[in-house]
Amino acid sequence: MIVVNDRLLEGKMTEIEQARAWSPRVISKFETLIRSGDDQALYRVNPLAFARDRAIAEPEAIDLFLYAARCGLFDMSWDVLCPQSGMVLDSFGALRTLQTHYVCGLCDVSGDTDLDDFIEVSFSVSPHLRRLPFHEPQTLSVEDFHWKLRFGNDGRLPGQDVRFLDVLRGFVRGMTFLPPGTTTMLRAELGPGSLSGVNVQTQAAFAVPISGDPVLAPTLLKINYDGKRFLPALPVVPPGPVVIEVTNTGSGRGALLLINWPPELVALTTKPALDFDPYVSGGALLARQTFRHLFRSERVDEKEGLGIRQITFLFTDLKGSTAMYERLGDLNAYALVREHFALVNAAVQQHSGAVVKTIGDAVMAVFSRPSDAISAALHIFEEIDRFNGDHDGPGIILKIGAHCGPSIAVTLNDNLDYFGQTVNVAARVQSLADAGQVCISEALYCAPGVSDLLAGRSVVAFDAPLRGVEGDATVYRIMPG
């Protein structure tokens, strides 16, 4: 039986409806999910899948869940995924607590990931609105604890339409909880390869080779689990029947998933990364204006920062702003500057970007997709031309530059900011633009989708020195018109 806190839902839905303009039926589709969706559909919701299944624009779906999280209907989490299994290795409720180092006991891999690689931002319905079994993991069946709580459903083998979980289930030889102070027995039939076990909650794991001549009598494999490690008593087991006795000497309940990996997978020194359906990455969320507006208190650990593999920076600058202040006076000039800020902010947000900060009369914006930065730049000039045509007196004359590459997200002066060479190069590229022009780096020009946006436009390539880049670099000037 589904029980929803109607009073909370009605009050908060009104708040969300009034927060901004929504497309027709978006709110009703969202409310239907809350009232009628099954438990799994409301746990770790992927806004992009929600958008796809309900014919909603992706940016609008992301904003919808951000508003829902801000008002307390949903809880937002930053989930660290294993690239090779899709398991949720860790989940963080706040950006400041996010740790990008991961360890997967199932795959026997560890490493560091970037915000835009295997950090998924998901949304689970609040227990105050509708209570799910997943809110109390200790009450779940052993099957739901493993397959629904810890794994996503969309990880597929590379280049194939085969879910990894369907393959993994074929190798599983048992799963159980391990109550403290008890010995748990499992029986299994083993083939050649390797027997491994993992606690999917803590990533404690063990692996024992399966080799030698097959046996008919069951092999007894005793394993001690102390809450942190599994310690098998045998270095190797033969193919055939096995009885596994696991003694939990720790103080808390453990869990064990047993897998019989076949020889061809054991032989792989590195398992390939899975293909995933699109999801909202941590890097993409930081580059959304709605997130920066609603979650201003979110911070990155100032000691380290968080790496981003690919992000696009766009810088704008008013040409002749000093002369404009002298000619118009401070008040009139500042009014014009504010008009320019409003135009730029609106265009950036419309193209799924975010304004990071203003620097004098300049704007620094960020985009997770390179093509969005180009679309925003072209749109900004269209809006500037429209504004200048509609107003008498001095017009706004703008220069724009953009570049993409790796960066580090940091918190500076209580603001989510970015640091690194990519930022410096983007600012330098902007300085090469003339009035009414966009200059972009070669990296951005070659990025997916950019050449299509520039088809039919006059683009001129030239070489210029860029600080931190050895020798001259190729820059592309997009001409007006």
Automatic annotation (TrEMBL):
InterPro entries attached to this UniProt entry: A/G_cyclase (IPR001054), Adenylyl/Guanylyl_Cyclase_3/4 (IPR050697), GUC-dom-containing_N (IPR045983), Nucleotide_cyclase (IPR029787)
- Which CDD domains does the entry link to? CHD (cd07302)
Q: In the record, which residues are listed under signal peptide?
A: none
Q: Which residues form the Guanylate cyclase domain?
A: 312-430
What the entry lists under PROSITE patterns is as follows: GUANYLATE_CYCLASE_2
Name assigned to this protein: Adenylate/guanylate cyclase domain-containing protein
